[in-house]
UniProtKB/TrEMBL annotation, chain A:
Belongs to the steroid 5-alpha reductase family. Residues 151-300 form the 3-oxo-5-alpha-steroid 4-dehydrogenase C-terminal domain. One of its GO terms (molecular function) is very-long-chain enoyl-CoA reductase activity. It is an enzyme of class 1 (oxidoreductase). Involved in both the production of very long-chain fatty acids for sphingolipid synthesis and the degradation of the sphingosine moiety in sphingolipids through the sphingosine 1-phosphate metabolic pathway. Catalyzes the last of the four reactions of the long-chain fatty acids elongation cycle. This endoplasmic reticulum-bound enzymatic process, allows the addition of 2 carbons to the chain of long- and very long-chain fatty acids/VLCFAs per cycle. Pathway: Lipid metabolism; fatty acid biosynthesis; Lipid metabolism; sphingolipid metabolism; Sphingolipid metabolism. The keyword Oxidoreductase applies. It comes from the Eukaryota. This is Very-long-chain enoyl-CoA reductase. The chain crosses the membrane at residues 81-103, 162-180, 192-214, 248-273. Keywords: Acetylation, Endoplasmic reticulum, Fatty acid biosynthesis, Fatty acid metabolism, Lipid biosynthesis, Lipid metabolism, Membrane, NADP, Oxidoreductase, Phosphoprotein, Transmembrane, Transmembrane helix.
Automatic annotation (TrEMBL), chain B:
Its EC number is 4.2.1.134. The keyword Lipid metabolism applies. Catalyzes the third of the four reactions of the long-chain fatty acids elongation cycle. This endoplasmic reticulum-bound enzymatic process, allows the addition of two carbons to the chain of long- and very long-chain fatty acids/VLCFAs per cycle. This enzyme catalyzes the dehydration of the 3-hydroxyacyl-CoA intermediate into trans-2,3-enoyl-CoA, within each cycle of fatty acid elongation. Thereby, it participates to the production of VLCFAs of different chain lengths that are involved in multiple biological processes as precursors of membrane lipids and lipid mediators. This is Very-long-chain (3R)-3-hydroxyacyl-CoA dehydratase. One of its GO terms (cellular component) is endoplasmic reticulum membrane. One of its GO terms (molecular function) is very-long-chain (3R)-3-hydroxyacyl-CoA dehydratase activity. It comes from Oryzias sinensis (Chinese medaka). Pathway: Lipid metabolism; fatty acid biosynthesis. One of its GO terms (biological process) is very long-chain fatty acid biosynthetic process. Belongs to the very long-chain fatty acids dehydratase HACD family.
Length: 300, 240
């Protein structure tokens, strides 16, 4: 027998008898959903203690520390979107927004510049690179990534989208501006940057392809024959390292301050993520290579 | 305008709050007392300076010049309060305190100091007066709280005067920024235009307008802070 109370008001929301002992939390959530159709399972948080951690969907009722009547507390997590949807939204925005600026859609720049194109080759190359980067991310989202949690709250998604979309608009505005100034060292600067960009994108893609099931690994990732994976000798999260490299090269390629700002902020965020992952690896695997650091070889 | 009481803990909802959740150590308390006493004294100096200048001139125009230096010194000194929160000797949020202090410092340096033409505006006197009275009360409130001997008068003054001083300060600040706009536009102060090597631009004029707009949400939240805190304290009977 399962009794579900509201975590805040403690009023009884439902009383489920005839629940099999080997049912999972997921099953209970489905039963709850039948009684309260607006709270689909993804937005339910069930806990054994009003302030405790939420129970995972896979947990089995009879393995929980409850008596004949299990009392659980319900909290509404708010509207949820699947991670694939979230990543898709976060990445389709920058891709399309940048193109709006590249093609100089009216009302962005002065009227006589509408639908014109920049005389600088680097501007077109930058557009190709930026578009390629986000196309790659979209493809990875659909075909490569497997996410652990089911969903993310709506507010986080709005915040993330505002950040990515806003920044891409800001940097696209300057790169595609009629008064854009090409890099100080000309073609040399642009070409070197493009090479590094390509290497980092390939590196990032290799790492994602081979090493990114999102649930706990049986073994930590190790370098393989693929040279791009040799970064694993030095860092726990080479995908983040490559991503930082991508954006640094893009900053150099465009010589645009807003791009550099975006790169720095991204670097900070990715370092936080990488350090977390690194700590988790070190905790879980006693033989984790000591030379490895989180994101920047030998430094960070 | 001001963050939660320094050196004392926020009242816990529903149950009787302990005297201090995790008070600063003895050394930190001594430092904070000195800091708050110095700040109280500083703002008193500004208050006295204003009164003396008014009496000497017979009018309230252009009083800014008589207290310009202590105002800059003590208002900028308040940046230390961000450090206090970051280090943990004061139980306030770094972000919240940061926003408040930086907003003041911005107005002092980036608007009033930078745009000479607004310094003779009456709106400057308006916010300076509001700030002065508020800060004298606030810093003495903290001093007494730290010494665990808060006279009811100070607490009452803090929450009551706020009702008048907050809108007074906000009005003065907004009017001053507004007065600065034409000069900023004319001189291109702090602005960067295209084309340039780093492909970046910044229009200080537009930025100031955005700041003015941001006052609406920011100050409405701030406006609610004290009444909320006051009713929370009243509910729990915590008298600090």
């Amino acid at each position: 027998v399962v009794e579900v109370l509201d975590a805040k008001t403690r009023e009884q929301l439902c009383f489920l008898d005839k629940v099999e002992p080997h049912s999972t939390i997921g099953d209970i959530k489905s039963l709850f959903y039948k009684l309260y159709p607006r709270w689909y399972p993804a937005r339910q948080s069930l806990t054994l203690d009003p302030k405790g951690k939420f129970l995972r969907d896979e947990e089995i009722l009879q393995s929980l520390p409850v008596g004949t009547t299990a009392t659980m507390y319900f909290k509404d997590l708010g509207p949820q979107l699947g991670w694939t949807t979230v990543f898709f939204a976060e990445n389709i925005g920058p891709l399309l927004i940048y193109l709006l600026f590249y093609f100089r859609v009216p009302y962005i720049y002065s009227d006589r510049c509408a639908f014109t194109s920049s005389p600088h080759k680097v501007v077109t190359m930058a557009c190709v690179c930026h578009t390629f980067h986000y196309l790659k991310r979209l493809i990875e989202t659909i075909f490569v990534h497997r996410f652990s949690h089911g969903s993310m709250p709506l507010r986080t998604i709005v915040k993330n989208c505002l950040y990515y979309w806003g920044f891409s608009a800001w940097l696209a505005y300057y790169i595609n501006h009629p008064l854009y100034t090409p890099p100080s060292y000309g073609e040399v600067q642009v070409h070197y940057a493009m090479v590094i960009f390509a290497i980092c994108e390939m590196g990032n893609f290799s790492i994602h392809l081979t090493y990114l099931p999102a649930h706990a690994l049986i073994r930590f990732p190790v370098p393989s024959k693929n040279p791009f994976t040799w970064l694993f000798f030095f860092v726990s999260c080479p995908n983040h390292t490559y991503e930082v490299g991508t954006w640094v090269s893009f900053s150099i390629m465009t010589q645009c301050l807003p791009v550099a700002v975006f790169t720095v902020l991204g670097f900070i965020q990715m370092t936080v993520w990488a350090k977390g992952k690194h700590r988790a690896y070190v905790r879980e695997f006693k033989d984790y290579p000591a030379v490895r650091v989180a994101i920047i070889p030998l430094i960070l | 305008m001001s963050a939660a009481a320094q050196g004392t803990s926020k009242a816990a909802h529903g149950d009787v709050a302990p005297k201090k959740k995790k008070g600063p150590g003895a050394l930190a308390t001594a430092y904070l007392v000195i800091y708050n006493v110095v700040m109280t004294a500083g703002w008193l100096v500004i208050a006295v300076g204003l009164v003396r200048a008014y009496v000497a001139r017979g009018s309230y125009h252009g009083l800014y010049y008589s207290i310009e230096k202590p105002l800059k010194f003590f208002q900028t000194g308040a940046l230390l309060e961000i450090l206090h929160c970051a280090v943990g000797i004061v139980p306030s949020s770094v972000v919240l305190t940061g926003f408040q202090v930086l907003s003041r410092v911005f107005l002092t340096w980036a608007v009033t100091h930078s745009v000479r033409e607004v310094q003779s505006e009456d709106s400057v006197l308006l916010f300076v007066t509001a700030w002065t009275v508020t800060e004298i009360i606030r810093y003495s409130f903290y001093t007494f709280s730290l010494l665990n001997h808060l006279p009811y008068l100070i607490k009452w003054a803090r929450y009551t005067f706020f009702i008048l001083l907050y809108p007074m300060g906000v009005t003065g600040e907004l009017l001053t920024i507004y007065a600065a706009l034409p000069y900023v536009q004319k001189t291109g102060l702090y602005s960067v235009t295209l084309p340039n090597k780093y492909n970046f631009s910044f229009d200080y004029y537009t930025f100031l307008i955005l700041i003015m707009i941001s006052y609406i949400p920011r100050k409405s939240i701030g406006r609610l802070h004290f009444p909320l805190q006051k009713s929370a304290i009243r509910k729990t009977g915590y008298t600090g």
